[in-house]
Amino acid sequence: MSERFDRQIKSPGFGQAAQDKLSSSTFLIIGGGALGSTVSEMLARSGAGHLVICDMDVVSLSNLHRQSLFDEADSTAYSLKVDALASHINRINSNVKVTTISEEVTVNNIESIIERYKPLLVIDGTDNFATRYIINDACHKHNMPWIYGACLNVNGTVYGIENQPCLRCILPNEPTTGQDCATSGIMPQTAHLVASIQVSEVMHYISHGHFSGKLTTIDCEKMIFKSRNIDAIHNPACPTCMNKDYPALKQSLSFVTKMCRGKYQTHVSSNLFNTINEYIIHQNEHFKLLSFRERKIHLLSNGRIIVFNVYSSEEATAVIEDLIKHAQT
Ligand SMILES: [Zn+2]
User: Where is each THIF-type NAD/FAD binding fold domain found (predicted)?
Assistant: First the structure.
């Protein structure tokens, strides 16, 4: 074991005590895509004790240019990302315990996941701000440090959050630029750099007991990399870290929610997965790829449904209701 981690134990500022801490700790990684898969791989290679990884997506061909732990076998099989991650991580370091949660993290389950696994840190591998505000509020409520990470095109941001300032202090309102990785793209190096900086914050926390305290931003086209102290941004009226009102934990799940790249998702009865026998292009035990009304649909065995190429929640709802009607006839 000492030989395996010899080079990082010899690294100044890390050492055996940090290695022992890393190897005995649990990390909750929310999202198993570009950031979550890369963070998971690095933590597994460096000897983390237990990784709890949440994701409900399947591996797609368009993931492979940046999500380097996955391969064509995963995308061809439409493997669940968490299953593919567990399989690859087990081949990389079989001593790492991996718990997979094939659910989307929402207001309904985040607190129970935190309470059940009691991670040392939570790591943001999501691709949307709605979930990040849920993470922000749940982590503050449960006194849980977490690492915010975001990337788009050639730009990325990382910040380790422990109490104050929190994400709502930095971004009081959800950014509404309308940009996502489908419209603006995402370069593989951006995702890997952001994931690497997130892991750097993990290692800093392991070694020092706190984050760096710096907000790091990158632009890997102009090659501008900045870190700055943002303590002054702390909002004395913040509803999360000052008033402890936790607005994200009070919202109800909307029926249909918008995702990246013009796709919408919701949950339907899991019976639909068993009753739908038409329109199937590909299927396995947990996943069906459908072509319905000239739209691609992902249907998962737990009832999660994603409709592609729809541009409003009303349009998505109409397609889903039509599909349910056809499954019943
Ligand atoms: Zn705050």
Answer: 5-239
